[in-house]
Amino acid sequence: MKNELRIYNSYKGKKETFKPIHEGQVGMYVCGPTVYSDVHLGNCRSFTSFDVIYRYLMYLGYKVRYVRNITDVGHLEGDADTGREDKISKKARLEQLEPMEVVQQYMNGFHDMMKVFNLLPPNIEPRATGHIPEQIEMVQTIIDNGLAYEKNGSVYFNTLKFAERDGVYGKLSGRKIDDLVAESRADLKNQSEKNHPSDFAIWIKAAPEHLMHWHSPWSEGFPGWHLECSVMSTKYLGETFDIHGGGTDLKFPHHENEVAQSYGACGCAPANYWIHGNMLLMNGRKMSKSDGNTIMPEELFSGGSSHISKGYSPMSVRFFMMQTHYRSTLDLTDGALQAAEKGYRRLMEGNKLLQGMQHPGNGNVGDLDKEINGLIDQAFADMSDDFNTPKALASIFELVTKVNSLKGGQLSFGEITVETLQRMQQTFTDFIFNIFGLLDEDIDVSGSGVVDELMALVLDMRQQARTDKNWGTSDKIRDALKAMNIQVKDGKDGATWSKE
């Protein structure tokens, strides 16, 4: 392992040295999407952050079991348990579809978008509807342990009793029981069923018109939204596992109630480390459909939105996300996207130059050699400091400057060793492709490098024309490439190309 990994633990409110339960292995659970609508950019940012975390854990040598669920039942309108309609059932009723048609349509769309952003799939992707028996079993266990009660066919978790007994309710989100009562906006009908306003449903009796329901000891109904994650995380990772992740908007009530359910079922915390990614803003404000301050991923790629001046490629957007730490808010603006696009292209061009370099030999360990190795060490140190991608990127870009100077002759290969050049080449490959998860969009996704091969052929033809003093052919090739937004740079070691 290259560095001691430190993670900001939301549950403790501080960075801690990461120590997995089982040496060399990591169990990580991340709350997945509720598949009733098209995936939005906020989802993409969150899951991209955890993709980088997943990739870096594997890079460090851990065997990672990454579980990310699909919510296909139980997530009610308003994210509460006050009798509002299930989001998927409502969508199915409005569109006159079967609920599983809705689920399949938007789950397929979610998977497609994750591929567009080059996210690795999780090891296990369980669905709530596939784990109803286990959820019923956990509800019964919590009842048997005295922390839940049944009212009119629904089962509620007794938060007040739990708070008095264990003293941990509210620790993750920083909320207190008294505050929850004051903030409660539940309707009076369902509130009257509860012993306390902060109690939450772990099993809900289905109304006659509800499309999804199952038989249970208490009623024909369906599980509460929070219950599914408690059940599926413990089923595949154990009662207590290493990392639980999700967006900061899930801290309360979702994650807070997961903690309560785990204590209610097994008397133990579900995870040792809680990781929360921050939200995505646009033009300094929270995204909102109601005031038009929103953009969908497809609009971002096509440029079909008044909020942007042009379309941006998926990898430019992914690079844009890397420029901000996952715990900080990310402000999406047209200017920031333009800068990210230029940065992404500069990074890819720098890597292309670096990978083509060959050391002539006879290099020395001088100041430049030490500086390059120091920047490489710093990049890894920053990634091991709570996955700090913007700081790691800064070190990588300092190395890009060194690469350009070596290529241009301002710096000499005699100032670095063969081993340092090789280490830099490997570091760029590791960071750009394996850790940051970027793709070179000038190379086809199959990895065959057809574009590079064709461009090498074109530049060879152009160089031959120049050697033969066939200026007409040389200019024709240059002008044709320029029309395709391809810039050719002539240097003492030959021509290189990049997309403008």
Helices, strands, pairings?
Layout: E1 6-9, E2 14-17, E3 25-30, H1 41-59, E4 63-68, H2 87-95, H3 99-116, H4 132-144, E5 148-151, E6 154-157, H5 159-166, H6 177-183, H7 188-191, E7 200-205, E8 214-215, E9 220-223, H8 225-237, E10 241-247, H9 251-266, E11 271-277, E12 280-282, E13 285-286, H10 297-302, H11 314-322, E14 330-332, H12 334-355, H13 367-383, H14 389-408, H15 418-435, H16 450-467, H17 471-483, E15 486-491, E16 494-499
Parallel strand pairs: 3-4, 3-10, 10-11, 12-14
Antiparallel strand pairs: 1-2, 5-6, 6-7, 7-9, 8-9, 12-13, 15-16
What can you tell me about this protein's structure?
This protein is an alpha/beta fold and 500 residues long. The protein has 3 domains: 9-277, 3-Layer(aba) Sandwich (Rossmann fold), CATH 3.40.50.620; 282-435, Isoleucyl-tRNA Synthetase, Domain 1 (Orthogonal Bundle), CATH 1.10.730; 450-499, no CATH class. It has 17 helices and 16 strands. The strands form 5 sheets. Strands 5-6-7-9-8 form a 5-stranded antiparallel beta sheet. The chain has a 4-stranded parallel beta sheet with strand order 4-3-10-11, with helices on both faces. Strand 10, helix 9 (251-266) and strand 11 (271-277) form a beta-alpha-beta unit. The longest helix is centred in the C-terminal third of the chain and has 22 residues, at 334-355. The chain is elongated and about 90 Å long. The two termini are 39 Å apart.
